[in-house]
Design brief:
Elements: E1 7-10, E2 36-41, E3 49-54, E4 59-65, E5 68-73, E6 78-83, E7 88-92, E8 97-101, E9 108-113, E10 122-123, H1 126-134
This protein binds dTDP-4-keto-6-deoxyglucose.
Length: 135
């Protein structure tokens, strides 16, 4: 049986009468030590992002405001997931082509990564990505 490309993890919610608080910690929602955090926001209407794969990088994506749709492709199968809550995170491992579409104007996508930024880890050409999956 093939495992799903979309791997969602629950993010513990610790809100109370004062408001909301969400927690991503090692051994909980985070399966790896974090070495970098970045967040994507202010995305213009109709703009899509991503269109690349990573050779090694593991990431946890949490949409902490608004919504976005993420498409994953492993060279054969494609799956899509809507992220619209800080109560769930999307784990994206290496070897997956990812695209981000349908950003809401208020979307803030926070990404926890297990390594520092390295352009050499990116495969930004879809044809090249598909070729590496065949090898
Ligand atoms: C990913 C998806 C979900 C840096 O200098 N440092 C960084 O940590 C990052 C993430 C990017 N950059 C530079 C590289 C580019 O010149 O910022 C610019 C925009 O990056 P990029 O076009 O790769 O952004 P997205 O939104 O297409 O992809 C990003 C991540 O790069 C990628 O790892 O998986 O979000």
């Amino acid at each position: 049986m093939t495992s799903p490309l979309v791997q969602l993890v629950p993010i513990p919610q610790r809100g109370d009468a004062r408001g909301q608080l969400s927690v991503a910690e090692l051994g909980g929602a985070l399966p790896f030590p974090v070495r970098r955090i970045y967040w994507i926001y202010g995305t213009q209407l109709g703009v899509s992002r991503g269109f690349h794969a990573h050779k090694q990088l593991r990431q946890l994506c949490v949409c902490v405001a608004g919504s976005v749709r993420i498409v994953l492709f492993d060279g054969r199968r494609e799956e899509s997931v809507a992220l619209d809550s800080s109560a769930k995170g999307l784990l994206i491992g290496p070897g997956l082509w990812r695209e981000m579409h349908d950003f809401s104007p208020d979307c803030v996508l926070m990404v926890f990564a297990d390594a520092e930024y390295a352009e050499a880890d990116y495969i930004r050409n879809r044809g090249e990505f598909i070729q590496t999956k065949r090898e």
